[in-house]
């Protein structure tokens, strides 16, 4: 069988992509593998992880691909993944935080934290902070946070009812978590200014993926119908263009603290650019994750 040789743009670079067994994450992982990266995928389900690694190796012709397992809504499992990564690789060049979901019913994570916030925001926050030393060791490096235009639906983080204890609406919780992705990206970019590690956020578009399948088939179909009605439903390969650009394009290495749709910079909402909210979210996130300051 003909296998195109992987191009060497990312040869020798170590890339970690979360949520890479489907959708945007899988398409991003495949593109990075084709560019010759040493690729680690974060995955929850061992059987899916094995199948995805085998498929990515076959499709890319790159054998330097493996999976590390973790449920990224569970803090202890993120710590374990980070530990295993550190022991095996010691350095990280590109981190793509992508694993995310929407929960129409309020649920708690294993740590007792509302699931949307635990997975979509704290998942990114903990993994990035735990691998910061490895990113700095690998500098110049990149952090790519997969966010969403849905952040515009949230006028600000509700610090008084952060986890929807008083009132929970799945769409609002999702929008808040995606606003948190932007606040986190901008604050981290500020903190890492001058280190050579670029941090950016990206909206992948409305995607034909597994997104919202956890809420049942009907909800998934509604999500797809809504995307079609809004005039856009992308295949994952198309949706991954933005993450791939930020993770690998040479010119993107010089850009940090920005929001992208595909390879184009966009202005995110006013609420996402509030420095005080970003700092407050950082403090709250430190408290909820018991990560030490600094
Ligand atoms: N689908 C869309 O229309 C859309 C639009 C804007 C932004 N996004 C964002 O894109 C990202 C990827 O979504 P997608 O559309 O590819 O959906 P998807 O459901 O196909 O992929 C999500 C990935 O995250 C993983 N994941 C979910 N919960 C996890 C957990 N607890 N632990 C570990 N992994 C977990 C899944 O296994 C899957 O691999 C998400 O951050 C999402 O918010 C999606």
Automatic annotation (TrEMBL):
Keyword match Kinase: no
Keywords carried by this UniProt record: Oxidoreductase
Name of one Pfam family that matches: adh_short
Keyword Oxidoreductase: yes
GO function terms (MF aspect): oxidoreductase activity
Top-level taxon of the source organism: Bacteria
Assigned protein family: Belongs to the short-chain dehydrogenases/reductases (SDR) family.
Protein's recorded name: Retinol dehydrogenase
């Amino acid at each position: 069988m003909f296998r195109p040789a992987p191009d060497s743009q990312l040869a020798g670079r170590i890339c970690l992509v979360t949520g890479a067994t489907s959708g945007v994450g899988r398409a991003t992982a495949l593109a990075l593998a084709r560019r010759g990266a040493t690729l680690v995928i974060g995955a929850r389900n061992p059987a899916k992880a094995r199948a995805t690694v085998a498929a990515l190796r076959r499709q890319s012709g790159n054998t330097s691909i493996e999976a590390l397992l973790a449920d990224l809504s569970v803090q202890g499992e993120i710590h374990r993944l980070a530990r295993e990564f550190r022991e095996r690789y010691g350095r990280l060049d590109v981190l793509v935080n992508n694993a995310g979901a929407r929960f129409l019913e309020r649920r708690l994570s294993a740590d007792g934290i509302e699931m949307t916030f635990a997975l979509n925001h704290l998942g990114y926050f903990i993994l990035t902070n735990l691998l910061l030393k490895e990113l700095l060791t690998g500098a110049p490096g990149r952090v790519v946070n997969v966010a969403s235009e849905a952040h515009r639906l949230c006028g600000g983080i509700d610090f008084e009812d952060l986890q929807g204890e008083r009132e929970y609406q799945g769409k609002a919780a999702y929008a808040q978590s995606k606003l948190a992705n932007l606040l986190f990206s901008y604050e981290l970019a500020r903190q890492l200014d001058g280190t050579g590690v670029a941090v950016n956020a990206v909206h992948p578009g409305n995607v034909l993926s597994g997104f919202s399948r956890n809420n049942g088939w009907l909800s998934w179909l509604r999500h797809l119908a809504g995307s079609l009605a809004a005039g856009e439903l992308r295949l994952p390969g198309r949706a991954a263009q933005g993450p791939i650009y930020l993770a690998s394009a040479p010119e993107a290495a010089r850009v940090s603290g920005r929001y992208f749709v595909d390879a184009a910079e966009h202005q995110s909402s006013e609420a996402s650019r509030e420095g005080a909210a970003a700092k407050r979210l950082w403090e709250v996130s430190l408290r909820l994750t018991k990560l030490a300051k600094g």
